[in-house]
Design goal:
This protein is mainly α. It is 62% helix and 3% strand. The chain is built from twelve helices and two strands. A two-stranded antiparallel sheet has the order 1-2.
Length: 282
């Protein structure tokens, strides 16, 4: 009887309908990716494929993610959204601390772990950013940035389905970054999934205005997003002071070698890079 109910004509048609919609969407992505680019950017040799994936991500953003993020932004009061953002930033400080330590950045490492300890203890589990009031700065970092500061070049630009802009180096580092995300260590699956979705919506809501600027100003949204992402990521690797392109190659950025603990104390914190258009992580 259970089998009969599971395979009723109505449910079968609904399942086929859902599969058809996703199949058509995937087909559009593939067809877009098959179109060749006459003169691809040297840093973007896979531009044909990347543009197809970018179009898919952008369509998904416009249809689902942005409307939900807009409703989230307009419905929740600022103090509540700020608390949610602080909570996730507090969790991220742990993985940032690990990577700052791997980069031999003593001051940044102390700040990252110190912020987590203070905000978790005195900030209601990280909802309140007490550490910032104590002049302890955030130093966001991930394993892709660690590889870059030890001299690994970024490799080709990549657009990852659902996640957005990246590089080959950052994509290879993604598996460790995922494991380093404390949200992914939550054992209860529904809770973990809910936190992941909430983090996505909160992050997208943060970039609503920036996204509108890109939509209104960029003649080619893909190129604008790619170039901005690569520039921000390069600035992060070189602590905001990248050498001229002709002075170094991305494959072996000598200036990207991690600074000593002493010099790291005065280095500026890397800015967060958008991971998806028009947001994007590390």
């Amino acid at each position: 009887m259970t089998l009969m109910k599971a395979t009723t004509p109505g449910s079968g048609r609904r399942s086929v309908g859902r599969l058809s919609r996703w199949g058509m969407l995937a087909l559009v992505v593939v067809l877009q990716a098959c179109a060749t680019v006459a003169n691809p950017n040297p840093k973007d040799p896979w531009e044909s494929w990347n543009r197809g994936v970018f179009g898919f991500n952008d369509s998904l953003d416009r249809a689902v993610v942005k409307p939900v993020a807009t409703a989230y932004h307009d419905t929740l009061p600022h103090w509540l959204r700020s608390g949610i953002g602080n909570f996730f930033n507090n969790l991220e400080d742990v993985w940032s601390g690990v990577n700052n330590a791997l980069q031999l950045r003593g001051r940044d490492t102390a700040d990252s772990f110190g912020r987590f300890a203070i905000n978790t203890t005195f900030g209601l589990g990280g909802v309140l950013d007490v550490a910032t009031e104590m002049n302890m700065e955030r130093h966001p970092s991930n394993f892709g940035l660690t590889l870059g500061r030890w001299g690994a070049g970024p490799g080709p630009f990549v657009v990852i389905p659902f996640l957005g802009a990246s590089t080959l180096r950052d994509t290879l580092a993604l598996s460790l970054d995922v494991k380093g995300n404390l949200v992914n260590q939550v054992s209860d699956v529904p809770t973990r999934d809910a936190l992941t979705v909430l983090k996505l919506i909160d992050t997208r809501a943060t970039y609503l205005k920036a996204g509108d600027v890109v939509d209104g100003a960029a003649l080619d949204k893909y190129s604008f997003t790619r170039d901005a992402f690569l520039q921000v990521r390069r600035n992060q690797v070189y602590d905001g002071n990248p050498p001229d392109e002709e002075d170094t190659t991305d494959a072996a950025p000598e200036a990207a070698a991690p600074a000593s603990a002493a010099s790291a104390a005065s280095a500026p914190a890397p800015a967060q890079a958008p991971s998806s258009a028009p947001a994007a992580t590390p």
